[in-house]
Amino acid sequence: MEERDDLQELELIRFDDETELNTIVTEKYDESQIQVLDGLEAVRKRPGMYIGSTGPRGLHHLVYEIVDNSIDEALAGICTDISVEILPGNIISVRDNGRGIPVGLNEKLGIPTVTVVLTVLHAGGKFGGSGYKVSGGLHGVGSSVVNALSEWLEVEVTLDGKIYSQRFSRGDPETELMILGKGDGHGTLIRFCPDADIFTETTEFDFETLERRLRESAFLNAGLRITLDDRRNAEEPLHRDFCYEGGISSFAEFLDSTRGLTALHDTPIHISAVSGDRSAEVAILYNDSYNELLLSFANNVHTVDGGTHETGFKSALTRVFNDYGRKFKYLKDTDKNLSGEDVREGLTAVISVKLTDAQFEGQTKGKLGNTEMTPMVSSLVYEKLMTYFEENPGVAKAVFSKALDASRAREAARRARDLARKKSGVDGASLPGKLADCTEKSAENTEIYIVEGDSAGGSAKQGRDPRYQAILPLWGKMLNVEKARLDKVIGNEKLLPVVTALGTGLDEDFDISRLRYDKVIIMADADVDGAHIRTLLLTFFFRYMRPLITEGHIYIAQPPLFKVSKGKRSRYTFSEEERDRCIAELGGDCDVQRYKGLGEMDAIQLWETTMDPAFRTMLRVTMDDAITADETFTILMGDKVEPRREFIELNAKKVSNLDV
Asked: What's the CATH code of the domain at 90?
């Protein structure tokens, strides 16, 4: 089995002939080397520049771009219904009842405007004209990019009593714009088939991925109806209907309900304001957890890295708590002010702003940069939340009680952190006693195995390559950090060795530049207990050392489940199906050993199957969607049983090899 680490070898080339070397370094470079790509050729040449990747993320991004155009029609006050269908062959259909893409001749190019929109980059109605006051999408790029990356695309526009149609092939018009007949109403229908030459990994759309995105869009646009139908399986078609009159307040309630959290007040606090061509609304809901979930959007674009609107919200929220607390004696004169972390413990908040000429930082629009949104959101939150607390003292008391508890826990955590620093490698103290470190001191190309139990740890220590592989055995039941505040996490005797060995610190002290190993590999038994250990560790990393996940340092080792032997021939297999195939290939009548735990393998077997880079298989832990990840950890590791049962029952059907 080949290693998944993708290590590359460098080939050294020696030139014995000086003439040959000179020929290479003086290769001709003049005007003939400069290429000018026509039309949408640039998109097909470098698709990642426009949609991020040609993997599943980029594939689904095609759908988002077309849907976002329909949502822009909703923002303009026209569109009320959007229908998305996944048809057999992974064809996407998006229909809306917006104004319809204009079909008249473009004065500059002399071709129908709808053709321009679908074949010319940066052609659209979102560049300061009166067509759109606010918009998401790629600002004149989205539709043409989808067209360029599709094997074929068809557009139908219903406008002025007629239905217009045109078909394209890999971005180029295949037919002229034609009139199909008479039509009532107005709107646009786009059908497209992603190009397998571009999306070589897969062209299959995931229903749940689209479901999450479309549900989110419906929450952000109160009253807009979005339907999703999967018609690929005629016997089991799937249908979802999203329409939320409560808008982002319903969104906040949904986020807490799916995570099985109990709200501290009956309904979300909803505040909003409009100033000229800008608007902002915020939904606030406090729950009984110790974590915060803050989602922000600008023109329906999820600003995963925050921005000026988040800055205004956070600063105002902290001021409200401190000013109200002192006014109504929740805070004494001698008390310190509450911190931002204190007032955001157990908070679920959704911030949505809409504005013309939104300025996003970065290619992925992850951060809003419009400076005028900070004072607008800050003023809105401070004035209206202060008034809300004064008019609803019962709610104020409940959330203040939680913030005060958080403040006391934060102070206890500070003391625990100071103590932990003295014990940790951060301040140069000794490493954990059970750590078998590697001899290489540079983090590059080194790895640490976090191993369940002393027995497996002993085998791993004997079987490892000590030059670059470190072993840290864990023992006893670990703390479930989902059910504990930070003061209980810092200095925990089961978690402290992990923090000390990695060297990064945790929470606000976390510094990834101090990471002592490039790969952090969780190696646990292939059973229920092992799965629990993995989940506890992943929860800890997600809550307090998240960059380890987002920057790709966390791995899951994949030990074999069976050893199949016949005569002198032996093979290791990782599932029951693979075991059965192996037995058949060896001619049957085989000796099969089932590994119940890592401790049943000797050092050589553990090295051969799970630790040798030449043969091992490892899973890299990634996180594309922080909202879904947060929800999953809360469900699996939180207090509520019913959401966990529902999650397991739903997802067990998707697991091909469930061995318990």
From this structure: 3.30.565.10
Tens-digit pLDDT profile for residues 555-568 = 999 888 888 999 88
Q: Answer with the one of 217, 240, 263 that is the final residue of a domain.
A: 240
Q: 3-class secondary structure for 78-131?
A: CCCEEEEEEECCCEEEEEECCCCCCCCECCCCCCEHHHHHHHCCCCCCCCCCCC
184-194 in b/e form (b: 16+ CB < 10 A) is eebbbbbbbbb
| The two three-digit tokens of residue 114, written as one number | 């709808």
| Catalytic, out of 65, 452, 482, 630 | 452
CA distance 207 to 202: 14
| DSSP bridge partners of 87 | 91
DSSP state for residue 31 in the 8-state scheme: G
Tokens of 78: 């026209």
Active site residue 624: no
Alpha carbon distance 613, 603 (integer Å): 15
Q: Identify which of 247-251, 352-356, 609-613 has the greatest average pLDDT.
A: 247-251
* CA dihedral of residues 607, 609, 610, 615 (deg, nearest 10): 100
Mean pLDDT of 529-557: 89
* Pair of tokens at residue 164: 């217009």
Q: Which of 473, 553, 542, 544 is nearest to 515 (CA)?
A: 553
Is residue 619 within a helix (H) or strand (E), and if so which, with residue range? strand 618-620
One of 508, 529, 591, 624 is an active-site residue; which one?
Answer: 529
Read off the pLDDT of residues 444-501 as tens digits, 9 standing for 90 and up. Answer: 889 999 998 777 888 899 999 999 999 999 877 788 888 888 888 887 888 889 998 9
Strand duo 469-474 + 293-298: pairing = unpaired
Is the residue at 499 inside a domain?
A: yes
Residue 544 is encoded by which pair of tokens? Answer: 């307090």
Residues 201 and 105 in one domain: yes
Residues 41-47: contacts with CB under 8 Å, at least 24 apart:
42/121, 43/121, 43/144, 43/145, 43/148, 43/149, 43/171, 44/148, 44/149, 44/170, 44/171, 44/198, 47/149, 47/198
Q: Which of 345, 525, 630, 631 is catalytic?
A: 525
Interacting residues of 641 by C-beta distance below 8 A, sequence separation 6+: none
How far does CA 631 lie from the centroid of its chain? 11
Domain range for residue 581? Answer: 562-594
**Cα–Cα distance for residue pair 481/637, rounded to 1 Å:** 8
Active-site residue 452, yes or no? Answer: yes
CB 188 within 8 A of CB 100: yes
Return d(Cα 125, Cα 114) in angstroms, integer: 11
State the catalytic residue, choosing from 288, 383, 527, 578.
Answer: 527
Which residues are CB-contacts of 618 (< 8 A; sequence separation ≥ 6)? 4, 5, 521, 555, 556, 557, 558
- For residue 276, the model assigns a pLDDT of 87
Annotated catalytic, 529? yes
User: What CATH number does the domain containing 476 carry?
Assistant: 3.40.50.670
